[in-house]
Amino acid sequence: MTSRHDVGRARKPQNENGIATYRRIVEAALDVLATRGWRHASVAEVAHAAGVTRGAIQHHFKDRDGLFTAAMQYVMDERIRRIEELRPAAGSGGERTREIVHTVVDMHQGATFAAGLHLCVAAAADPNLTDRVAAMELEVGARGFWAIIELLGLNGNDPTVRTTVQAFLDSARGLGLAGMLNDDSRRRAKVADRWADMLDELRDRRRE
């Protein structure tokens, strides 16, 4: 089984300066990947964007593939933490559900989503990347799924609940793809509102 260490091939820093450098590198890697695409993104460009030497990158990452996959692992971990942080900040009832749904939909917009899409497309065509990226997607997808189940107070063992929540997550990805092609923020907000209503209705129906 592929471990998270194998997925990212990164040496995680232990001190404050190392953590700050690591963060700059992965954020720069995401920007480069989003703008240049997998084929043209280079370690040299990441080093320049992060304001570090190539040696600093090699200290943290085994190779180019490890750099970009670790960058995606990092941002996906941050995405899950953002969902989990909704717990104390959220209100109650429909407004709570709406906040959660809109947050998840918004996470599938912008440069970070574009970087992830580039990585997935590259992994589909590169056997050396396929297993690592698939394992990363599977792990993060499961974590996000169960975080949403818990936040919404749904029964994760119910087949209808599981299918509906997964359909919502798939829809969020689709909205992210549409958002890369044109500004559909108004339509996206309406779709997110409808998902919030459906998830609330599902929870209320199961409690009856």
Give a structural overview.
The radius of gyration is 18 Å and the shape is elongated. By secondary structure, the protein is an all-alpha fold. 32% of the residues are buried. The protein has helices spanning 4-8, 16-40, 43-50, 54-60, 64-84, 86-89, 93-106, 110-125, 127-152, 159-181, 185-207. Residues 1-9 have low confidence and may be disordered.
Keywords for this structure?
208 residues, mainly alpha, 83% helix, 0% strand, elongated
How would you briefly describe this protein structure?
With 208 residues, the protein is mostly helical. It is built from 11 helices and no strands.
Count of helical stretches: 11
Helix-strand sequence: HHHHHHHHHHH
Shape: elongated
Runs with pLDDT <50, length 5+? 1-9
Quote the average pLDDT: 83
Structural class: mainly alpha
What percentage of the residues does DSSP assign to strands (E)? under 5%
Q: How would you sum up the major sheet?
A: none
User: For the CA atoms, what is the radius of gyration?
Assistant: 18 Å
Distance from first to last alpha carbon: 42 Å
Share of helix, binned = over 70%
> How many beta-strand runs?
0
